[in-house]
Amino acid sequence: MKKITMEEILQKVNHIPAFPATMVKLLRMMDDPEVKVGTIKEVIRTDEGLTVKLLRVANSAFYRGRREIKTIEDAVILLGLRTVKSMVFSVTVGPMMSKELGGYDLGKEALWRQSQLSAMTAQLIAKKSGFKEVDLAYTAGLLKDVGKVILDEYVKNNLDEVMALVEERGMAFSEAETELFGISHAEVGAQVAERWNLPAEIVEVIRHHHDPAQAEINPKLAMICHLADNLIMMMGINLGADGMAYAFNAEALETLGLTETDVTEIMSEIAEFVDMDDIYF
Questions:
Q1: Is residue 1 situated within a structural domain?
Q2: Is 239 domain-assigned?
Q3: Which helix (H) or strand (E) holds 181?
Q4: Whole-number Cα distances in Å, 245 to 5, 74, 147, 227, 239
Q5: Which pTM does this prediction carry?
Q6: What is the count of structural domains for the chain?
Q7: Is residue 67, in this structure, part of any structural domain at all?
Q8: Can you give the residue range of the structural domain that contains 14?
């Protein structure tokens, strides 16, 4: 079998749509602790799709109070910047990550829902562990599996060979991908993140979410997303073909200063969200 080369993968990565300039501007604004709601509103109003989604979510049963939300400014205040940021990603990468992925045995929207729950879990872990950049943890958790979208066709066409390496040789699923194709979904995802000009910390987490000990820029962030990924798998949420086919870093809890009780509380909180449609954007 001819291995996939980095050049072939990069050709596919280069066909991934770039982030719209408006969205890039908005994300950078929301990373500024001094940003004003009025400034954010002026940028949002230039994107009809985001405006419609923002108002729809603000008026959903999960968020809405006693009055109807009619303005962008009121919606931003009600939802908060973290939720607005997740909606920016839902408009830009949501459609791509909502496709059915036959190679990973993930139905339509399964990867996107799993990614949102993983992001929420990373956010909760960040808070519990005292990690200050909670928004960064959310974003990293959301995008860690984006590489599956591109690698899916290769996995689908060679799934028997992939699973043979996992089951007979004890390889992690991502290691089997590398063995057969020359590259894993984690590395492909990192290449996509670089194309999108995402922060180096996000790129690193995507690349090393299965082997967080390799992270150098922000090891704690990588460990947070690694733990989030494993907790979602332990809960059996949209496991797919590669579910549980990865090693867990036993030092995760100690590194993050978490106890088994903390983990149980996080899992209980996430379990409450799984079937609540209004939390998915």
A1: no
A2: yes
A3: helix 173-181
A4: 24, 44, 17, 14, 10
A5: 0.85
A6: 1
A7: yes
A8: 6-279
